[in-house]
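Cross-posted from the bioinformatics board.
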Amino acid sequence: QVQLQESGPGLVKPSQTLSLTCTVSDGSISSNSYYWSWIRQPAGKGLEWIGHIYDSGSTNYSPSLKSRLTISKDTSKNQVSLRLGSVTAADTAVYFCARGVRGATVESIDYWGQGTLVTVSS
Amino acid sequence: DIVMTQSPDSLAVSLGERASINCKSSQSVFYRTDNKNYLAWYQQKPGQPPKLLIHWASTRESGVPDRFSGSGSGTDFTLTISSLQAEDVAVYYCQQYYDIVQTFGQGTKVELK
């Protein structure tokens, strides 16, 4: 069964760049059967889709974050990364890495990491 | 973006009773080419990541109890828990994956009455 583990700094200063890594175990990010997503959740609030990356390296981003966001992958390490620039307190949230299924079309997300809390504060 | 709106925001249900959660999308998530609704339901318990319950609007994920069912098409969907159990207390989210920009509903909190 695939496992996803998010890692990165838990505290980021305002205006700086938030960087997170998702390490995938028991599943290859190079498989064309899946795509890899980032989703976040502020404390006590709902889920916000951030974006995702396909095996080809192509990406789709949330329009509200697109100007500050980069999602990339390192196939040799089986990792997916997120970089969000110019952060503010509004970016404080639990960040989840997740796997989506890809058949003939994009399908639903089926596995989630445990999530990692990132706080933006000076 | 497709806006997903759930109702109610919360509901309290007695053990063994039925719980129904509605999800409405701002545009259809039905894809005529494959005759499928691109709609999923997730369950999230405190301190845990969401868990996939239902995809394609009505297909239960493997291992999900059959008291959970999904219905609807186009823009209107429902998640039903036929006989609420204590372990079903959670927040439930709908999500559309029809559009390349995926979106979630705001969540519905299910509590015990």
